[in-house]
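Interim report, section 4.2 (structural modelling).
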Amino acid sequence: MMYRRISVILLLMFAFATGAIADPAKESVEADASTRQVAITSSYTGTEILVFGTVENSVQPSAEAGTYDVVVVVEGTAVPAVVRRKSEVGGLWVNTSFVRFASLPSYYAIASTRPIDEFADHAVLDANEIGFEHVRMVPAGSRHTEAMEPAEIAKFKEALIRLKQRERLYIQSDFGVAFIGRSLFRATIELPPNVPVGPLVARVYLFKDGRLLGQYKSRVMLERQGLERYIHDTAIGRPLLYGIATVLLAAAAGLTAAFAFRRIA
Amino acid sequence: MNLYLPIAEMSVSVAMYLALGAAVGFISGIFGVGGGILLTPLLTFLGVPTAVAVATGNAHVVASSVSGAVAQYRRNNIDVKMGLIMLTGGLVGTFIGVDAVRLLRKAGLFEVTISLSYVTFLGVVGTLMMVESLNTWHQSQKSGTPRSARKSGQHSWVDKLPLKMRFHRSKLYISVLPPIIIGMFIGFMSAIMGIGGGFVMIPAMIYLLRVPTGVVVGTSLFQIVFVAAFATILHAVQNKTVDVVLAAILMAGGVIGAQFGTIAGERLKNEQMRILLAALVLIIAGRMGYDLVTAPADLFSLSTAVRGG
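Predicted structure of the assembly:
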């Protein structure tokens, strides 16, 4: 009787042990954005998109366990930028030096389960461009920039990130990703009113014990629609017509007011 | 209510920008200036990209000065001939100015060049106007009769220039060169600052050309209409920075404000008007000068290459 009970326990333990070995299903991540298309119309005042996903083969016992770390990055199109620095020249504050960056994300929002430095090392973050400091921002070659110390250039990069954050175009949310249950997670990403219009890329990374287990990529279109689109396309595609139309509108507004007031006066 | 601006790429409160347009329009109606010199810095302050603020400011100037010019025309306050002569110079100056904007922006020297030249210019003009109009005002207080700024029979270097022409409305017989050069300078300023240039043109017409004060405002507005229209079109084509939605909101407020301003302006005496204008010019010059010499809150600034920038 006693032996039998022990053997049952042993058998169960064995089953558990072999189960873990026999089922080595690797965890991976699948994700998507709540909307694939954000329309910019004349009533656009900024919006939010929800990025959600699931950890396949999650071994996480509960939502609060913190077995996994998830990072969500939503990025705008790459644009060049110039950062200038003022200094005092004969009592006046003048732009004296600059660094031109060939390409950097026009918009960059990052959300994670906890601060990224706590669970991932720099090599991984650099390789995947996760976090403001790890985004590739290469100074465009110019005589002015080449003569600069790397430490100087770093200061410009720092300023760039700070200025972008002030414009709310670079957004960081250290605890912005939340697990709902063992495998489902979600993050809300803010699209500010001044977000540069263009396609967005949403990237999701799954970490466990500092190792990158998987990633997922999805696209979100950010497009002008309706009247906004018509006006913008005219301004870019037929600028002369657009300019003349604006002037005529202005002249009409001025004349209308002038004649309306003569009636009243 | 909020509206999304297609070129500035931002969402703005319609009520606030209407009020801004109306306030600026009121001032332009009083003084016969386009109001761009107030509008452009205010727009920038509210977060509109500088290049868009300048170009759209030009469009707003068209509306408010058309409105003002019509009001002045009805009162027969425009010297059309003088206006047209100045305009020929104005168009050339605008053309040069729009190109200068492109080059200065590229070099990152746009703001400082403009601020510096403005502080100097407005400072000098404002001080001269203030001194002279205060003197005139004191004398008119004493004698009880307002005295014109124009001193007949006075000769200056302006009178020695060739190509003289008669301007009936202004009661002048002067060379066409000074009006053309003044017009050219105004056109240049207009393009780079998004202003009509009335602040500079009115004093120049009064003190250099000796155009009677009554005709100055109308004539100035008349030529500003065309210079600003030309600048708007050039900015739209070259820099693609004119925001028609923003312009429409500002205009709607501006044209109404300008009408009230014109009425208010009529109640003011010449000297009083000039003292106020001088004060306004000096305040702006002081403000710009202050920004130039004080350490900025952030030494760094960012410009993402916008279209054409």
